[in-house]
Amino acid sequence: MDQQTQPVQISFGEQNCKCVSNIVFNKRHVFAVGTWNVKKNNEIYVNEYLELEQKLIQLHRIPINGMVEKIITKKEQLYVIYIDPQQRKTKLCCIELADNGRYQVNFDLLYEGLTNVICPEDDPTIYLSSNKSIIQFDLNKQSFDNIIDDNDLYNLCEQDPHHRNLFVRSQNNYLCIQDTREKKVTKFKAHSLEILDIDFNPNKQYYLITGGEDCLAKVWDIRKTQYAIKSFEDLQNSVLQAKFNKFHDQLVSLSFDDGTISLYNITSVSSVPQLNKEDDYLVKQYDEHEDSIYGLTWSRGTAWVLASIGYSGHMIINTVPTTEKYKILL
């Protein structure tokens, strides 16, 4: 194994963790991790991976009043979805990062049923999805607009980055596609058990990947929902996270409840022209974690850095093998 592919890790002590998120800081590798402790104080850690020095350094350590479910980033702002242990209700806070470990809390409010905050890049609008509705919030005008509201209950929600009017939500093992310009909802069975993650391809329109409790990951073209255009069927564990690489979408990472991560090259369904008939393949399996990996994210600094967080509070940085980089770049 060459030096560039050696894992680097940091422990947050005896703290449970469920999420890690990348932060866009030029070409730096910066990640935010939230703890999930029922009986302990919770915190958000912002760390930077220094690739040349092969180490992680702490930039911020921020107390939070509950168990962190999800962190969504928009430049220097962190939108944090957390559960208040006393009220047993979902809350949303916005934390703005500053230099030298400083920060300020812009707001902290009750938002029952909140599942995601969607933050399109270079857009003053964010979208708040709950288990029943999607609300559009204009940050400049400080105005709300309820764009989807229905009686059904939903779990996950993501927005198509290529078409801001398209949203995909999960309902147990079903996917539901809705265009905000229409009232029609396209609903289809995507997995046999609950869908655990949804991620849109950043470079190819209408393509997304799902991971399920049924030990399957599938790539879909949401214009043709009769069948998945690719299915990972040789998996042995529930797929907790499924993520496209934001630079080279032929690279896909999957994390599992047994503490492993699989990196695949799936050129056949990517935006990359397939010059030959080479099959998709497993690039590498990472096995440094000892328990379920609920948080997985690619760095926004460069294409080759992957961060993961295990439930026991260990964050590990892995990189794409050098041989695979050369295959992609040359």
Automatic annotation (TrEMBL):
It holds the Pfam family Beta-prop_EIPR1. Keywords: Repeat, WD repeat. WD repeats lie at residues 188-230. It comes from the Eukaryota. Residues 27-264 form the EIPR1-like beta-propeller domain. One of its GO terms (biological process) is protein ubiquitination. InterPro entries: Beta-prop_EIPR1-like, EIPR1, WD40_repeat_CS, WD40_rpt. Coiled coil: none annotated. PANTHER family: EARP AND GARP COMPLEX-INTERACTING PROTEIN 1, WD-REPEAT PROTEIN. This is EIPR1-like beta-propeller domain-containing protein. It comes from Paramecium sonneborni.
